[in-house]
Amino acid sequence: MLKALKLEPQHCTGCMQCEMACSYENEGVFNPAKSRIKVFTFHEAGRFAPYTCTQCEEAWCMHACPVEAITLNAQTGAKEVADAVCVGCKVCTIACPFGTVNYNQATGKVIKCDLCGGDPWCAKACPTGAITWTDADQTGFQRMYAWAQQSPAGEASYILPQKKDPAAYGPSA
Amino acid sequence: MSWTKNVLRVDLTSRNVNREPLNMEWAQEYLGQRGLATRYLVEEVDPMVDALSPDNKLILTTGPLTGTMASTGGRYSVVTKSPLTGAVACSNSGGYIGAELKAAGWDMIIVEGSAPSPVYLYLENDHAELVDAGEIWGTSVWATDQWLHTRYQDPLLRIACVGRAAEQGCLYAGVINDLYRAAGRSGVGTVMASKNLKAVACRGTLGVGNIKDPARFLTATAQGKQVLAENAVTGQGLPTYGTQVLMNVINEMGALPTRNMREVQFEGAHKISGEAMHEPRATDGKPNLTTNAACFGCTIACGRISTMDQGHFTIEHKPQYWGASGGLEYEAAWALGTDTGVDDLEALTYANYLCNEDGFDPISFGSTVAAAMELYGMGVITTEDTGGVDFSFGSAKALARAAEMTATGEGFGKVLGMGSRRLCEKYGHPDLSMTVKSQEFPAYDPRGIQGMGLAYATSNRGACHLRGYTVASEVLGIPEKTDPLVTEGKAELVKAFQDATAAVDSSGLCIFTTFAWTLDDIAPQIDAACEGDWNMDKLLEVGERIWNLERDFNLRAGLTGKDDTLPKRLRKEAANVGPAKGMVNELEQMLPRYYEIRGWTPDGTITEETRTRLGL
Which of A104, A150, B190, B463 lies at 20 to 30 Å from B356 by C-alpha? Predict the structure, then answer.
């Protein structure tokens, strides 16, 4: 069963645990500047939103790459960058409509989410359930459920962090 | 490790910026942040200096866990000599700037001297430069933030700066970072402005590495997060209601100081409580609270983001306040509301916005307004003093005007900016100032919570709840319940809280974790990250060493045991209602025992034996 990262901005508090987990898994340091997932803050609206690669099926980045450095991992569905092949031309960063492939000036290669080989650290680190790792075919089911339930407007569930299984907190090496 | 081992020294007078290695011997004795920066201050600043002279120094400091994945690991502190109290000042803030300083490669920034004309410090990893700030001097925190973001075209630039209150000499001006997080107390912003330093703007892309044992660190921090998630306070109460979860609780127990601490319960508490912030308004059907928010790395997320009623009298013609912004924490809601008798939640939110926008401490400000209101009621202060404003208790209009005037230092705002003690002295009623060491009280009445009286009286930065929060034990039963109305055992309790807090404040973690964590939860996280052996006993020893170092600075600054006291009102005027009815604070029953277990003389000086034991 293919899984996908499900992002629910309404639960995000802007704590950056996902960015630290991502950068630590990929770079070996706690460094939001090198995170493949980014949390954006909209001060005036009082909103936070995590954003990262959605692993498009017909991935623009993959098709655009002139040296075929970006390939499909059939196990996870991730489009992965092979550092040994990437020449740092940045065409993929232009091709991606969502901006989720970016150049890393420290290495001269591009970086993007690779789903951590099927065990994404960002989802494990998120304390509120704003980022979850879920059945790729059912990312909308919870929202459908909520509509089906017709919960009254104004209920404060968007303020309470959505707690998940505490055992799933934080990545452990 | 996890210290970057780099200190940036900024000499404003000569415009020199230099890197120097962190003193790792001191790091083992004082850990980081509050403790380590105080060690530097003690080494480099004569305690007798005028706090607002170029001889004072201002230290911006992170802890070893700042910028890591440890929950709440985003704290930083500003350490200096306070112009409000004349004592050591250490103000702690969250937001994102602390982690950014660390990610740029700096444990600490020591600012010395004074710039001939306004400057700001721009940091991009190891690149540091002082830049002319002529265009932003005289503007607010929010305007400065916007100007710097526009200038550098970098939305991720993190900024800490002072507002107009600090420039105007308000003695309780803070250093505001990320728009509405504050190193708020004791006038650390006033010191920064006195040096003509408007802002520190930082972008760090190096990250934080050098964790001693990464695998153990990830396990220890994950366990810590689980404890926070499962705890009722940190897992439910704080994310839902913020610190405002306390307003109704403390009111119920008759320990909510009201109207300049004349009373101990506020009839309007429920209108300005955490619960009230969730209620849809009658006017526009929307709640005051928009969402909760986290500081860097925090899995609690107690921060309040509010959106005001656009039709409220304070902002109906001011669209700049119609967006979401930092909302009321318990202390701010208490000082701006309960202590002034104002129960208009929107007016409190507005005053809180102004405290953020122009950088002044809502606790000291609210308490000073409360003192002015009492003097106004007595006829000592009149509309001639206030610029025509009716300063009666409960007046939301007076509160709003007072905040506007204090923000810019105009008219009566200049007087309010001096703080409660100086204001009450000016009008001939020093006893009406609710302060310790010239710093205003926070929101817990020591008549109904006896241990807090001792904590206030002996706090190294003047009245403060965050030096020894015995409320945790006396009210919430953390780590174990003690009777708030008795004095027995409180000396030991206060000392234990003071020492543990000093250690936590030196780590890069937030003190709010200690609603759920003990040092037993914290020590493994520090030990996995930092070189050396860090267990609970060592942290307590470090905490005690820091406490005594701060005390020593204060004694050499001219304070004495006589300053370890409370205003007469709290010692002589009994609580009028509630569970503590008829009680005063029995400080004198606790203080001698406290000195004794601290290893101090009966007049409150540190004995040679204690100095030797702690290696001072």
Answer: B463
Question: Fold identical between A1-52+121-149 and A55-112?
Answer: yes
Q: What is the pTM of this model?
A: 0.95
Q: Is the pLDDT of residue B357 over 70?
A: yes
The pLDDT, as a whole number, for residue A149 is: 79
Phi, psi at B276, each rounded to 5°: -65, -30
What is the per-residue pLDDT for A145? 85
| Yes or no: domain A55-112 corresponds to CATH 2.60.210.10 | no
- Chain B interface includes A35 (CB < 8 A): no
CATH of domain A1-52+121-149: 3.30.70.20
Please check the confidence at residue A14 and state whether its pLDDT lies above 60.
yes
State ipTM.
0.95
Locate the DSSP E strands across B143-254.
158-161, 175-177, 181-183, 197-203
Residue of B nearest to A49 (CA): B293
Interchain proximity A13–B278, CB inside 8 Å: no
Domain ranges of chain A: 1-52+121-149, 55-112
Contact B340, B393 (CB under 8 A): yes
Q: Is B278 on the interface with A (CB under 8 A)?
A: yes
- Residue B221: list chain A partners with CB under 8 A: 170
- Contact with chain B for residue A118, Cβ under 8 A: no
Token pair belonging to B524: 């493994």
Q: CA B247 from chain center: how many Å?
A: 18
Q: Give the tokens for residue B43.
A: 């080494």
A162's CB contacts (< 8 A; 6+ apart) are A8, A11, A128, A129, A130
**What is the Cα–Cα distance from A136 to A165, expressed in whole angstroms?**
20
